[in-house]
């Protein structure tokens, strides 16, 4: 070999890392894995656009029709304005919920085993996937929001609120991405995961405030809505984007907690995939 | 905790009474194995013999009871992170990321192993050069041939200067030229770095050519152990009366042939997937 390989410092291999070293490694690894996810996205830009087609259709067709027939009472907010944040959250959910399939694909391709044999905390691998799901959601959100502007939805131009939108989307995506990885870690097969993914996405979506106000739901559905993180994501997005009344503190609190809990659970189940 | 003097004297790998079962299926059944430092050690056997389970235990992917598996003196159950720092691992499937370029793939592993920022670029170039991938380094890996992907994976595994290189079926699905290319680079790197190489294969002829010592696994246990010459010498003549081959050795110890495929559907699927990705 032309250049001799530098051996790792002896200190690394003579002790198990303590909590501080572990945290530092985890943060550096999350950054590394996020960088890789960004590189992958850069090499495959068409995907970002094609994924925006479905939410665009929801907005154009469903949104226009339901605005015209005035079927859903949304107070003094036009229905299309009410719907746009819901569609953002929905499209983020649809991207994130299939990340478990990607993990299973990586398992089948040997990629996961190879990563698990590196000195990388499992939480970093999971957090990077969560981050990637968030980046895709944000990229899609840009397309959907531009379309919403064209359709005449009045959106905020406040940069701080837009930053809040990004954060809410990233947190929501992190939760659903890790939920998907958790299910992957439990069922271990692509087919079963696809089935479960499809079985839970629609209920999550319909038992949320994405399409209609909570007050229209039957009581039992309102209860589901209260424990559905998607609703808190939508509420935050709606408050930030179109100035609808929103409990932003509560929403972000729930989203942070939900994402943290789900990242933890997903990381503990990840090694099951390579056994 | 093992002291460093113990670590330097300890073998590269030691398995003591290792047992791994999945439900009712016993994959590894009381395995005793010792891989010496600096040797090229071959773990041989048919699909389903327990090779991959053994490799998974050694590489920390599969939990092993404390005290049953050590890597360079470190217990894989208690000192996982240390063990992972010492291992370079190439799984059976072609596992490089097709959407990234070759260089990005290697750079990722340099980062994951904390190769210092200053040394990173030089080291990445070094392994790419050693694997003859400099020209292709900026192309997406999905344009690589099977042999090139395998060499790229070796580059990924070597960029952290591992003391133990673990290769699971490194030449499965490769054509003879690519196969030789892979072995040539493994041998050369081993000569230059003095690292230990642990390789699983069911290609008897390759093991005969490239491994210094061989353990023959069958139904979760080691049935024979030694240099290829010792193993062949011990059984005398081969089946057709000529010089014994490792195939004869295998048949002698197991009363079975290698073609007899006992692999589970998962093994078969994995092999087919690998073949599929090779085109």
Total helical elements of chain B:
11
The low-confidence parts of chain B are: 1-5
CATH class of chain B: Alpha Beta
Give average pLDDT of chain A, whole number: 87
- What is the approximate shape of chain A? elongated
Using the coordinates shown, work out and report the CATH topology of chain B. Rossmann fold
Instruction: Work out the number of β strands of chain A.
Output: 0
Supply the number of helical segments of chain A.
13
| Share of β-strand residues of chain B | 15-25%
N-to-C terminal Cα separation of chain B, in Å?
A: 47 Å
Question: In a few lines, what is going on in this structure?
Answer:
The complex is a heterodimer of chains A (275) and B (279). Chain A has 275 residues and is an all-alpha fold.
SSE order and pairing:
The complex is a heterodimer of chains A (275) and B (279).
Chain A: H1 10-14, H2 19-43, H3 46-50, H4 53-69, H5 79-96, H6 99-108, H7 111-116, H8 122-150, H9 159-187, H10 190-206, H11 219-226, H12 229-242, H13 248-269
Helix pairs in contact in A: 2-8, 4-5, 5-8, 5-9, 5-12, 6-9, 8-9, 8-13, 9-10, 9-12, 9-13, 12-13
Chain B: H1 4-9, E1 13-22, E2 25-35, E3 40-44, H2 51-58, E4 69-71, E5 74-75, H3 80-86, E6 87-90, H4 102-112, H5 117-130, H6 146-158, E7 164-168, H7 176-193, E8 196-201, H8 204-210, E9 213-218, E10 221-226, H9 228-234, H10 246-254, H11 265-278
Parallel strand pairs in B: 3-8, 3-9, 6-7, 7-8
Antiparallel strand pairs in B: 1-2, 1-4, 4-5, 9-10
Describe this structure in words.
- The complex is a heterodimer of chains A (275) and B (279).
- With 275 residues, chain A is an all-alpha fold.
- Chain A has one domain.
- Chain A is built from 13 helices and no strands.
- The mean pLDDT of chain A is 87.
- Chain B has one domain: Rossmann fold.
- In chain B, helix 4 packs parallel to helix 6, helix 5 runs antiparallel to helix 6 (146-158) and helix 6 runs parallel beside helix 7.
- Chain B is globular.
- Chain B starts with a helix and ends with a helix.
- Chains A and B meet through helix 1, helix 2 and helix 7 of A and helix 3, strand 6, helix 4, helix 5 and helix 6 of B.
């Amino acid at each position: 070999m032309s250049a001799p390989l530098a051996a790792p410092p002896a200190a690394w291999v003579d002790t198990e890392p303590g909590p501080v070293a572990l945290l530092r490694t985890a943060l550096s690894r999350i950054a590394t894995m996020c960088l890789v996810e960004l590189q992958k996205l850069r090499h495959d830009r068409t995907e970002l656009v094609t994924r925006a087609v479905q939410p665009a259709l929801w907005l154009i067709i469903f949104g226009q029709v339901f605005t015209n027939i005035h079927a859903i009472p949304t107070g003094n907010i036009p229905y299309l304005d009410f719907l746009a944040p819901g569609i953002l959250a929905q499209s983020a959910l649809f991207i994130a919920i299939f990340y478990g399939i990607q993990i299973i694909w990586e398992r089948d391709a040997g990629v996961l085993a190879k990563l698990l044999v590196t000195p990388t905390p499992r939480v970093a691998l999971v957090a990077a996937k969560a981050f990637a799901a968030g980046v895709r959601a944000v990229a899609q959100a840009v397309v959907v929001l531009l379309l919403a502007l064209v359709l005449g939805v009045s959106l905020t131009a406040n940069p701080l609120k837009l930053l809040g939108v990004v954060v809410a989307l990233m947190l929501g995506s992190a939760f659903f991405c890790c939920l998907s990885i958790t299910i992957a870690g439990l069922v271990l097969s692509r087919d079963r995961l696809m089935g479960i993914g499809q079985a839970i996405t629609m209920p999550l979506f319909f038992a949320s405030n994405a399409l209609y106000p909570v007050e229209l739901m039957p009581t039992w559905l309102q209860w589901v809505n209260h424990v559905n993180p998607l609703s808190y994501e939508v509420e935050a997005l709606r408050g930030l984007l179109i100035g609808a009344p929103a409990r932003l503190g509560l929403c972000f609190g729930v989203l942070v907690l939900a994402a943290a809990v789900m990242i933890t659970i997903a990381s503990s189940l990840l090694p099951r995939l390579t056994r | 905790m093992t002291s460093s003097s113990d670590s330097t004297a300890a073998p590269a790998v030691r398995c003591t009474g290792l047992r791994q079962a999945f439900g009712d299926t016993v994959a590894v059944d009381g395995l005793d194995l010792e891989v010496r430092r600096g040797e090229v050690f071959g773990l041989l056997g048919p699909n389903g013999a327990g090779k991959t389970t053994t490799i998974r235990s050694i590489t920390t992917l599969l939990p092993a009871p404390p005290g049953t598996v050590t890597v360079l003196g470190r217990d894989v159950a208690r000192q996982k992170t240390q063990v992972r720092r010492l291992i370079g691992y190439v799984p059976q499937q072609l596992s490089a990321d097709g959407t990234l370029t070759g260089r990005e793939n290697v750079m990722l592993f340099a980062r994951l192993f904390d190769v210092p920022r200053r040394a990173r670029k030089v080291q990445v170039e070094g392994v790419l050069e050693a694997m003859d991938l400099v020209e292709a380094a900026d192309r997406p890996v999905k344009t690589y041939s099977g042999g090139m992907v395998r060499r790229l994976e070796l580059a990924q595994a070597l960029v952290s200067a591992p003391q133990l290189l673990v290769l699971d079926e490194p030449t499965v699905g490769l054509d003879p030229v690519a196969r030789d290319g892979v072995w040539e680079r493994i041998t050369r790197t081993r000569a230059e770095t003095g690292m230990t190489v642990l390789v699983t294969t069911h290609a008897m002829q390759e093991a005969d050519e490239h491994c210094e010592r061989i353990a023959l696994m069958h139904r979760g246990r080691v049935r024979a152990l030694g240099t290829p010459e010792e193993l062949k010498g011990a059984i005398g003549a081969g089946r057709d009366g000529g010089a014994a081959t490792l195939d004869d050795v295998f048949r002698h110890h197991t009363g079975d042939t290698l073609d007899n495929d006992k692999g589970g559907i998962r093994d078969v699927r994995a092999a087919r997937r690998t073949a599929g990705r090779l085109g």
